[in-house]
């Protein structure tokens, strides 16, 4: 194999593989990326941990075909140190992979493995249904809900995000058992049906890929799109020159519709930034074990209190739009702050019933094509 590729393209492709590479596997090949000549004028770089896989292509000058697998981190670090401009990658008869700058004497040699020893990446079946969605929509679903995915890998049904395409609506729902988040968007004219349970690691990689796609200039003036295909146990997400494959979680997601209260006895409107600042301030004095704060709603005021046997107590209050009966309820401050952090509205609506019932947090106003709901379970203070 002998190719020449722009440093910025090679660095971009290898960088996209870093989050998928399995550095701790008992299979050494999984710590490598596969560099493969993909055609007369293109190169393909891929990585997998056998659960996730990513493959990216870029233009290259191909002098000789072939493939090689090289350590992902070593390759990234060395390409990063190359001067700007063309970089050549070649495989010697000994199997060593040589990386040379086209504008300076700088070069590196890496111990590679034969390309045919790299695991074959999954491919969607020819008849797999394909859905198309704006990258911005998928990005919004992920960014609004990722924080409430459980990090407990022993509970795979919670260590994942539920993605649903229901008629002309797409939604993502996540929960860790203490809070639940649902974000939904309408996609008029695109009727489809799909349900996927996507693991947390894949959600993190999709977030990075969608953020990168949104940041790249679009020469055609059209919004970047992502195609989604579900085939067997896998889902495939294709964004421009990158295909991302994920092995879906085979588990039952909680019946989230039953968790979201259908109605509430009390509705409060509160200034979001003032509430965020007050919660951050008062939670400094909260118990390290529970992080609990007590909210007292009375008249047009929300009083926020916390106390800890170790550090004392804290207090603040903010004006709110509320005229019902006095309510006292406790929450983990971080759970409420996490919901408020993904909203951009000046005001939020908080829906409450009893002191032991979950709270619903929503934007005070929403566009017709997008909706968000955050549910936070109360705690005894």
Question: What is the topology?
Answer:
Layout lengths: L1 E5 H11 L14 E8 L2 E7 L3 E8 L1 E4 L2 E5 H9 L5 E6 L4 E6 L5 E5 L1 E2 L15 E5 H11 L14 E8 L1 E7 L3 E8 L5 E8 H16 L9 E7 L2 E6 L2 E6 L18 E6 H12 L8 E7 L2 E8 L3 E8 L7 E6 H9 L5 E6 L6 E5 L6 E7 L5
Antiparallel strand pairs: 1-5, 1-7, 2-3, 2-6, 3-4, 4-18, 6-10, 7-8, 8-9, 11-16, 12-13, 12-15, 13-14, 14-26, 16-17, 17-18, 19-24, 20-21, 20-23, 21-22, 24-25, 25-26
Helix pairs in contact: 1-2, 3-4, 5-6
Features:
381 residues; alpha+beta; DNA Polymerase III, Chain A, domain 2; 3 domains; nine-stranded antiparallel sheet; eight-stranded antiparallel sheet; 6 helices
Protein model, in words:
The chain has 381 residues and is α+β, with helices and mostly antiparallel strands. The chain folds into 3 domains: 2-117, DNA Polymerase III, Chain A, domain 2, CATH 3.10.150.10; 132-218 and 228-256, DNA Polymerase III, subunit A, domain 2 (DNA Polymerase III, Chain A, domain 2, Roll); 260-376, DNA Polymerase III, Chain A, domain 2 (Roll), CATH 3.10.150.10. Helices cover 18% and strands 43% of the residues. It is built from 6 helices and 26 strands. The strands form 4 sheets. Strands 10-6-2-3-4-18-17-16-11 form a 9-stranded antiparallel sheet. Helix 5 runs antiparallel to helix 6 (333-341). The longest helix is centred in the middle third of the chain and has 16 residues, at 200-215. The radius of gyration is 25 Å and the shape is elongated. The N and C termini lie far apart (66 Å).
């Amino acid at each position: 194999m002998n190719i020449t590729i722009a440093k910025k393209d090679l660095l971009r492709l290898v960088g996209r593989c870093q989050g998928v590479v399995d550095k701790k596997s008992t299979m050494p090949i999984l710590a490598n990326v596969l560099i493969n000549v993909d055609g007369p004028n293109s190169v393909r770089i891929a990585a997998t941990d056998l659960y996730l896989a990513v493959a990216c292509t870029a233009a290259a000058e191909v002098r000789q075909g072939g493939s090689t697998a090289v350590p992902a981190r070593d390759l990234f670090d060395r390409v990063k140190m190359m001067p700007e401009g063309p970089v050549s990658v070649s495989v010697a008869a000994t199997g060593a992979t040589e990386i040379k700058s086209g504008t300076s004497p700088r070069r590196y040699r890496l111990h590679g493995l034969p390309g045919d020893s790299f695991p074959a990446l999954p491919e969607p079946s020819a008849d797999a249904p394909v859905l198309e969605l704006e990258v911005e929509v998928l990005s919004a679903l992920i960014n609004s809900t990722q924080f409430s995915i459980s990090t407990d890998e022993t509970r795979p049904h919670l260590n994942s995000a539920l993605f649903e395409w229901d008629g002309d609506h797409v939604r993502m729902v996540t929960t860790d058992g203490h809070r639940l988040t649902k974000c939904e968007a309408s996609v008029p004219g695109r009727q489809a049906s799909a349900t996927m349970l996507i693991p947390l690691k894949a959600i993190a990689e999709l977030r990075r890929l969608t953020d990168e796609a949104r940041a790249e200039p679009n020469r055609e003036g059209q919004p970047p799109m992502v195609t989604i295909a579900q085939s067997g146990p896998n889902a495939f997400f294709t964004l421009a020159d990158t295909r991302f494959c994920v092995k879906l979680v085979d588990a039952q997601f909680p019946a989230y519709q039953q968790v979201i209260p259908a109605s509430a006895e009390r509705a409060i409107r509160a200034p979001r930034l003032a509430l965020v600042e007050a919660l951050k301030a008062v939670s400094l004095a909260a118990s390290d074990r529970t992080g609990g704060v007590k909210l007292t709603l009375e008249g047009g005021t929300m009083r926020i209190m916390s106390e800890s046997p170790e550090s004392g107590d804290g207090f603040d209050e903010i004006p709110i739009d509320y005229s019902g009966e006095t309510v006292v309820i406790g929450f983990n401050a971080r759970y409420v702050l996490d919901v408020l952090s993904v909203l951009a509205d000046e005001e939020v609506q908080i829906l409450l019933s009893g002191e032991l019932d979950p709270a619903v947090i929503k934007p005070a106003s929403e566009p017709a094509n997008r909706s968000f709901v955050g549910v936070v379970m109360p705690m005894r203070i």
